[in-house]
Amino acid sequence: MNAVEYKQFYDQVGKINGWDFSKVKSVSEGVAWDFYDEVIQSCKKSDLLLDIGTGGGEALLSLADSALLLIGIDLSTGMIETALNNLNQSNKSNIRFLQMDAEKLDFPDHFFNIVSCRHSAFSAREIAKVLVNDGVFFTQQVSEHDKLNLKEAFGRGQSFGTKKGVLKNQYIAELADAGFTDIQSFEYNATDYFETAEDFIFLLKHTPIIPNFGQSETDFQILQQFIKNNQTEKGIRTNSERFMITARK
């Protein structure tokens, strides 16, 4: 999938689902942190927080009491539509959602105390521009070996065939070039168990893990064999591999 196809995918998913996977029945073993809990721990009530790639806004709405003003941006029209609908159904008055390109942040310089970004692309230089001095940036990203047994079964997938650590090292280098200091990185590789085939199919249809999943009848044959090979007493087994980077300006 190229950039245009990814945008079309997220527009479609955003209108239907946002980034809400609460209905998926699964458990994970070995998760080392909760990303937005890490963000909250650095927030003060007087802070201004920017969330890049905010999706349907579900996570940002849960953080409303942690900062003075929270702004979520996303390039996807569908995601922002869902985020605004979610906001309208909440009683939160200190949150704003805007459609915006992370490569061109349209905010004043030195405006935010905290910038967060989960599973979305970002520009280190743009973030450095809008962060106050001593501001902190948090990002969690999907590692190359995420859902590795699934990608191997399909012979394709996000970052399939890419050496582990390439993306993390790229981001660390870009942050250093943008003037960030005290850059730290963390990793985990958790084991996921999905309760039913329907839960697994929901994941595949609402994420780009396997690009264009379901457009070929062969995909369902491969998935059926994958489930047979990875069915356990706990559920259908795969993995979630993540890395997190924190950087101070």
CATH architecture descriptor name of the domain at 3-22 and 30-144 and 160-189 and 240-248: 3-Layer(aba) Sandwich
Mind summarizing the main beta sheet?
A: 9 strands, mixed
Secondary structure tally, helices: 9
Low-confidence stretches: 1-19
> So, the CATH homologous superfamily of the domain at 3-22 and 30-144 and 160-189 and 240-248?
Vaccinia Virus protein VP39
What percentage of residues falls in helices of 4 or more residues? 25-40%
Cα distance spanning the termini: 33 Å
Annotation, overall tally of beta strands: 9
Order of helices and strands: HEHEHEHEEHEHHEHHEE
Shape: globular
Structural class designation: alpha/beta
Query: How big a fraction of the residues is strand?
Result: 25-35%
CATH topology of the domain at 3-22 and 30-144 and 160-189 and 240-248: Rossmann fold
- CATH class identity of the domain at 3-22 and 30-144 and 160-189 and 240-248: Alpha Beta
Mean pLDDT, to the nearest integer, reads: 90
Calculate Rg over CA atoms. Answer: 18 Å
